[in-house]
């Protein structure tokens, strides 16, 4: 199967899985009858870990709130099985800068989970990263497709384990708000704008946009661009082989401006969107009954973790549909977090081995808001039909997916708050009519970061 055909097949598989769950027939909190293990049920271990009594490890990631709490359950199991103790050290974006400071101070964490491919490349270039050991490599070869292994490699050497993946082409919606307005999930961009118009006219702003977090705006752009310009152009722009002043970028920004330019579509208007951080963008969509702050919010499968902080139930009150097709095909953008050892220790390699196993992924899958690229994870581990459908579509895609464009870029352009693409798109949200100015700023920053 060609890459383009498989990309289309993934979109179709994801749409099928989500439409089947988004009708309200999903079970919300529990799985299919008899398929999901109970919370306390013992699971057979799929990987042997060394005994590490008294060893102390530190792990860093840019995770907070429930995502961090759920990962703590994974670390607790590692402690139980090895006798080591593990401390979680919250990192700040850009994580490369954070790690550079820790390393310069002689206190690097043993393992870091990096949210960008560019950050992995930087860690290797700076000689911080340790190659993956034989035990972790064996888990990778048994449990991961070649594409996910290659994403964790630099110049042919395996440095990372992709512990967490994400389908970043999803729109979550408040079922009561949609029902009250008589709106159905849209399949095309034109239908999305029509639905937004109807929702806003009914008294509920259509979309909650997390404009305070620039990374969410890069995801908006990437989905529009991938669907409209196509995968070949997407790959070229991701590598800066075409300029951000290209007409395809102009077209995508103009299209995105059709939504961002309607203040009545945005929760809190333009100023409200620019002041809204990601967690709030989700929770305000699923509080307030049929009159929430907004009727829908765009982001990946991990949104489920934030929905869990409200009274809404995934599969009942909170439903989901694939990002609408802007061009001929609906987009499917993936992301992920790669675990890398920063110390040449037995404990760091043992933790990488555990994170590459089905044992670790199964724990966090059961907590919700998490999808693993590990094909050995039983789909029954996921807590509801919606998340099972997302996981199945990811695994079915194999190696044929498009990875988050900003995460592939140098961190200075694609992964730094207040700079590069994040800042340019925040400025665009503030003034969506300035397409040419946005393109010029993006190209100037990209040329500097890529060195060309």
From TrEMBL:
UniProt entry keywords in alphabetical sequence: Signal, Transport
Region feature Disordered, mapped onto this chain: 25-44
PROSITE patterns referenced in this protein's UniProt entry, alphabetically: PROKAR_LIPOPROTEIN (PS51257)
SUPFAM superfamilies with a match to the protein in the record: Periplasmic binding protein-like II
InterPro entries from the UniProt entry: Bact_solute-bd_prot1 (IPR050490), SBP (IPR006059)
Domain of life: Bacteria
Signal peptide coordinates: 1-22
Family to which this protein belongs: Belongs to the bacterial solute-binding protein 1 family.
Protein name, UniProt field: Sugar ABC transporter substrate-binding protein
Species per Swiss-Prot/TrEMBL record: Streptomyces katrae
Taxonomic lineage from the root: Bacteria, Bacillati, Actinomycetota, Actinomycetes, Kitasatosporales
């Amino acid at each position: 199967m060609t890459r383009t055909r498989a990309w289309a097949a993934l979109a179709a598989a994801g749409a099928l899985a989500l439409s089947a769950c988004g009708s309200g027939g999903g079970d919300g909190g529990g799985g299919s009858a008899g398929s999901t293990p109970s919370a306390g049920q013992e699971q057979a271990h799929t990987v042997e870990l060394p005994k590490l009594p008294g060893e102390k490890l530190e792990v860093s990631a840019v995770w907070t709130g429930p995502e961090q709490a759920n990962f703590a359950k994974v670390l607790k199991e590692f402690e139980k099985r090895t006798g080591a103790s593990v401390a979680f050290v919250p990192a700040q974006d850009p994580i490369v800068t954070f790690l550079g400071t820790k390393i310069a101070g002689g206190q690097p964490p043993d393992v870091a989970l990096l949210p960008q491919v560019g950050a992995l490349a930087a860690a290797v270039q700076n000689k911080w990263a340790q190659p993956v050991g034989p035990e972790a490599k064996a888990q990778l070869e048994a449990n991961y497709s070649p594409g996910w292994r290659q994403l964790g490699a630099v110049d042919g050497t395996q440095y990372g384990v992709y512990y967490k993946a994400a389908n970043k082409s999803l729109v979550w919606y408040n079922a009561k708000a949609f029902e009250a307005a008589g709106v159905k999930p849209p399949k095309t961009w034109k239908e999305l704008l029509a639905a937004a118009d109807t929702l806003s006219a009914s008294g509920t702003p259509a979309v909650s946009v997390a404009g305070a977090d620039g990374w969410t705006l890069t995801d908006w752009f990437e989905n529009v661009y991938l669907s409209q310009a196509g995968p070949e152009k997407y790959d070229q722009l991701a590598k800066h082989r075409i300029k951000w002043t290209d007409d395809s970028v102009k077209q995508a920004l103009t299209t995105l401006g059709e939504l961002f330019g309607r203040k009545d579509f945005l929760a809190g208007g333009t100023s409200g969107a620019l002041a809204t951080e990601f967690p709030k963008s989700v929770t305000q969509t699923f509080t307030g009954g049929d009159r929430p702050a907004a009727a829908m919010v765009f982001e990946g499968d991990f949104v489920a973790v934030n929905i869990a902080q409200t009274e809404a139930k995934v599969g009942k009150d909170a439903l989901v549909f694939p990002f609408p097709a802007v061009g001929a095909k609906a987009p499917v953008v993936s992301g992920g977090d790669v675990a890398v050892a920063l110390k040449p220790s037995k404990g760091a390699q043992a933790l990488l081995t555990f994170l590459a196993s089905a044992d670790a992924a199964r724990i966090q899958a059961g907590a919700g808001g998490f999808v693993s690229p590990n094909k050995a994870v039983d789909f029954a581990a996921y807590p509801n039909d919606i998340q099972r459908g997302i996981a199945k579509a990811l695994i079915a895609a194999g190696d044929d997916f498009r990875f988050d464009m900003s995460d592939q870029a140098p961190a200075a352009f694609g992964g730094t708050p207040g700079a590069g693409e994040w800042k340019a798109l925040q400025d665009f949200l503030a003034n969506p009519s300035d397409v040419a100015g946005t393109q010029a700023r993006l190209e100037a920053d990209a040329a500097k970061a890529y060195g060309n």
